[in-house]
UniProtKB/TrEMBL annotation:
<keyword id="KW-0812">Transmembrane</keyword>
<comment type="similarity">
    <text>Belongs to the polysaccharide synthase family.</text>
</comment>
<dbReference type="InterPro" id="IPR050833">
    <property type="entry name" value="Poly_Biosynth_Transport"/>
</dbReference>
<feature type="transmembrane region" description="Helical">
    <location>
        <begin position="12"/>
        <end position="35"/>
    </location>
</feature>
<feature type="transmembrane region" description="Helical">
    <location>
        <begin position="41"/>
        <end position="65"/>
    </location>
</feature>
<feature type="transmembrane region" description="Helical">
    <location>
        <begin position="353"/>
        <end position="374"/>
    </location>
</feature>
<protein>
    <recommendedName>
        <fullName>Polysaccharide biosynthesis protein</fullName>
    </recommendedName>
</protein>
<feature type="transmembrane region" description="Helical">
    <location>
        <begin position="189"/>
        <end position="208"/>
    </location>
</feature>
<feature type="transmembrane region" description="Helical">
    <location>
        <begin position="100"/>
        <end position="122"/>
    </location>
</feature>
<keyword id="KW-1003">Cell membrane</keyword>
<feature type="transmembrane region" description="Helical">
    <location>
        <begin position="240"/>
        <end position="261"/>
    </location>
</feature>
<feature type="transmembrane region" description="Helical">
    <location>
        <begin position="381"/>
        <end position="401"/>
    </location>
</feature>
<dbReference type="GO" id="GO:0005886">
    <property type="term" value="C:plasma membrane"/>
</dbReference>
<keyword id="KW-1133">Transmembrane helix</keyword>
<feature type="transmembrane region" description="Helical">
    <location>
        <begin position="267"/>
        <end position="288"/>
    </location>
</feature>
<feature type="transmembrane region" description="Helical">
    <location>
        <begin position="167"/>
        <end position="183"/>
    </location>
</feature>
<feature type="transmembrane region" description="Helical">
    <location>
        <begin position="314"/>
        <end position="341"/>
    </location>
</feature>
Amino acid sequence: MKWLLLDRSLSFTLAARIWQGLAGPVTLVFLISSLTLPEQGFYYGILGILGFHAFFELGLAQVLVSQSSHAAAHLDSSEVDDSEIRESQLRMALLIKTSAYWFSFSAILFAVVAIAFGWQTFAMKQSDVQWQSPFLFAVLATAVSLGLTPFSAILEGAGYREMIYRLRFFQVLTGNVVVWLLLLSGGKLWATFAAWAVQAVWTGVIVWQGREFLNRFRGVAGQPTNYSWSNDVLPMQWRMAVLSVVYHLATQLFPVIVIRFHSEEEAAPLGMTGTVIMAIQLLAYAWAQTKYPLIANLHASGNREQAGSLWRHTALVSCLIQLLALVGFFVAVVFINAYFPSIKDRFVTPLQLVAYSAGCVAMHLISLQALYVLSRRTNPLFVPSIIGYVVTTALVWYGGYAYSINGVLTGFAIGTVLILLPLHTWAYLKFRQRTLAHESPHEASE
């Protein structure tokens, strides 16, 4: 267990992922038994539209984790003087105040855009499926969750990881139960609202639990500081924002693309397969995500060797988990195709899954590289990422327009494996060479 680098916060995250892995098949059974194929298509189409919140989060949540982690490192340290502690307090106050305004505006804008785009996309299908009310309420619940995001991100970076991951575990647990109950009672597409409503409630609980820390900086907000949003946050954030947008366009709208250009029936298997793939990605990413604040803090404290060793170990475990889970899912899809032909149309074909999985492996490697760079409190690998994601977006959207599911997944695999990953890895290795060259011989041994 020591080799897995488990601590209490990671244990809660893994418990949530394990629960998702166990609950996932149950949810799929309920969806298959409760929804028709067109309803399944709309179900995942709505979830895809709700994913627009990433456009309006603009990568700021991850930046806030990094920035608050660096600020928190000197808040109560006995190794720094009072002036440094005061400066850290002012930085934290500025992060809380400015991000609160930013996300409040973003939440409202998200609701307007998501409703407009979703209504236009779904209404053109002229379907008998009753999607209107569930869709509207789901958008509003997502907007509330988005508005609370900066506070939970700042708390995570400031060291409240165990509390946050514990409550996130209860969120996942209760979210699944509520969705199951709705599906069993005939709630159908209202399950999309339930999932996001539960997330909004638990995010509110996290903010309430951390209110003492957040309120601690009210008295220092607005006082002079060398730290500024425009100089210290915005240069990193705008790059993350652009990356967030092109990433979402390239990877997160597969069912929406197929619904828009073809039909909800064709989108259904892509959506259900994507749900399993996403659970696998989240499980693998858990190791990196929960260790990220620690690694950022180690870099902030100058412990480069320890940070590098922890990151390499974390990345290795994360990749092994992803590969094993993807192989297991492939075997399950082959088994369903061979022995359960009545439900095989709810998932993509095994060959399509190979293309999907190849792209996901590439995306996971890219995510690990990007997180390490961000933990060094520097800009992400911007230019190669933008080039790769833009090309992948073009391949995915044109592929979906011309060839439906086959086109989407082929474009995704080609764009990520042959273009995005090589470009990103080249830039990442160049970054590592530059940073090692500027470190002392002892630090370079990481």
